[in-house]
């Protein structure tokens, strides 16, 4: 049986499977609230923990998208009694969303798993002018050696691991203005349901242990950052020849 | 019954550092708990002597009565 890091996350039913956990989601949403947020899109919503939190904070419409139908099924169960939420399967590189219909996109450790420039362009397509994009992404604190990059991308199934300047460049190239970039401690608490009674296949524990070893090994070069981005208005984009 | 029984049961899947009363240290994820033992999926190699033993395919077994301290390790997801 070949199982991936993301399969392990699903097996343990880990709710906020991104650096910083739900605490960082809460911090990020405080920034979102300063901007129009009548329609919010959570790309790579997983089992819907972030969507659930946001639905408790706002009356706006929230759309959650994940490529894995099993995750969407779990999210639908979790959010069965919530009216302002829509959940569907989809790919972040080709979102099932109309152009310029979204005020705010939240992407929690999702974009690095996709082809980054394609995903960023796609976010720009569905956002309204001046719309906000919050990216929470693993960021290398210094350029990684080819061996380190290879070990990390193959274990996690990442397309790449960018440094902060690389993120900045990709974000601007996709038609965004980078408003702010903040680093934060990735550690998290309380992400496991405390009632894991069912037997979890040993293969998932093995992946969990390897995940832990890798994060320890690369502790000094793996950081986490939030990038607050705003879709640049069309007239300015045309002006700079974009 | 050991006071560690309940805390181990409630934290299956989490990474811990266990120090036994004779000073040995074990780091791993809690995989299984019985009335007498906790079984860890070790982090960083399969070393370990003293009270630890390899139990029936459930990882590294440590007698609950031999636990001196148990600390949760910080962790995060990508």
UniProtKB/TrEMBL annotation, chain A:
**Domain spans labelled Methyltransferase:** 40-131
Family matches, as InterPro entries = Methyltransf_25, Methyltransf_Superfamily, SAM-dependent_MTases_sf
Q: Name one GO molecular function term.
A: methyltransferase activity
Task: Report whether Transferase shows up as a keyword of the record.
Answer: yes
**How is this protein named in the record?**
Class I SAM-dependent methyltransferase
Q: Name one GO biological process term.
A: methylation
Q: Which CDD domains is this protein grouped with? A: AdoMet_MTases
Tell me which UniProt keywords the record has, alphabetically.
Methyltransferase, Transferase
Automatic annotation (TrEMBL), chain B:
| Annotated keywords | Membrane, Transmembrane, Transmembrane helix
State which residue ranges cross the membrane: 51-77
Domain of life of the organism encoding this protein = Bacteria
Protein name, please?
Uncharacterized protein
